[in-house]
Specification:
The chain is of the alpha+beta class and 198 residues long. The protein has four helices and ten strands, in the order ααβββββαβββββα. The radius of gyration is 29 Å and the shape is elongated. The termini are far apart.
Length: 198
Amino acid sequence: MAKSVRRKLRQIERGGIRSAEERVQHILDERTESLASRRRDEASPVQALPRALVCGSGRERFGIPVETVAEVLPPQKVMPIPDGPQALVGLFGRGGRLVSVIDLALALGIEPSSTEDGDHHVVLLRRDQPQVALRVERAYAVADIHLLTGEATGFRTEAVTGYARVLDAAGDPADILSLLDTERLLRSFLYISPVSGV
């Protein structure tokens, strides 16, 4: 410590005569820069964890990216669409607009564990036109997730893009999620709706 102070005083003398205040300020500025650079070096880059809405359909759990979810609604009465695809279960009105409701289990070709409409949650997706909601058997919570794979291989649908585990889980295999890409899921429904604007 004493050697570094002497070295600094020599540098100050070589640079010309300065007032005591200027020397103190110079030393303080150098210490501040040194501490700031040390903290920058020690700090590891903080990576934001992905978050997903955890939903259940059939006997599986799915993760829907939170940025694609507008709202989770209680069960809704829907008006059926005659001659529509089986997974397109109907329409309901919200804010003066029609919302198409797609049953997630039927859209993915899995066996629903409950057929009672009153037990389902409705996940309104964040999109302008057309407005779409997914009917799921249960919307559990929004959770931080840890990605297990990049791309899903061998899954029965292109809408599943990978797998993840809910963080802070006890390691139960039921906590493994299939990650959904909602736009891929909706692709086959968006252009075949018999009702205009839906």
